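# step 3/5: fold
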Amino acid sequence: MDIVDSDAVQIGEHKFVNKSTILSHLKTYNLYYEGQALQLRHREDEGELIIEGLLNVFWGVRRPIRLQMQDDKETGRPHPSLTSPSVDITTVENEGTNQTSTSIEFTAADDQLRDSSGEEAASEQEPSTRSDRVARTSSDLGGRRISGRRLGIRRVKRHHRCSFNGHFYNHKTAVFTPAFGSVTNVRINSGMTTTQVMRVLLNKFKIENNPDEFTLYFVHTSGERQQLKPNDHPLAVRVLRGPCEQVSKIFLMETDQVEEVTHDVAQYIKFELPVLQSFITKLQEEEEREMQKLKRRYADLRRIIKKYMQALSDRTT
């Protein structure tokens, strides 16, 4: 069992830094974000340093992501129908006569229709025959249905959730693709691993995709791209890397769409195509020189070995 120093703070699997070191970086981090919501707090819990606060994460997904059709708290709420009218129709039998009449009860959402139909309601109370009353009621019902259908559409639109940066997602397919480079944030602490941060972030926006489809990358302005391992601690690593997002950012990207870019490779990818082509030419020339050097070396070794074998053969004969 590994013994962990009480003054050490874990930032990844088998990776630790001194507590004073990360506190020094945290001070610089908070000075950079002075007066802003991105400032971090720290506390100690049974001797363990805990840093907590908001972490900015930039969207870098290329494929559409699936969203829930509704929030969990709305699962018991019935959805408005696009075809059902917002009126209840009941048949009432008059006690004085054997005739039956149809009455219409309006819901609260249809109160605005009552004012516009005041004159019609007054005229309907005049004595008339049963056939006239049924005909007039059917006509009124048709008008209410059309208005109710329109009202129902407005209700459905109000029930659609906003997803990212105030944009509405496609309600029919429940998919959305965030703009590349747009930013969001998530409240976490330094004890949470990359896997845990991913689950919190996806749950915040009700994303139904498997968390294993995504991962977090540190993307440097030089083009260097480093994947955070599942057991790394993103908030602690962010503090150690520094607060400036013009230098490096944390991106959420698809695991199978992005590859890591090392520092050695990153220093070349910013050049123009002709410059890169010249680099390739020089690398090929250097490779050819190394191959020729290696061939001469092995040729010399073969010559020495054959000479020694010939000497042994002459001695035996």
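# step 4/5: annotate
Helices lie at 19-32, 111-116, 118-124, 130-159, 194-204, 234-241, 263-266, 273-316.
# step 5/5: archive (pending)
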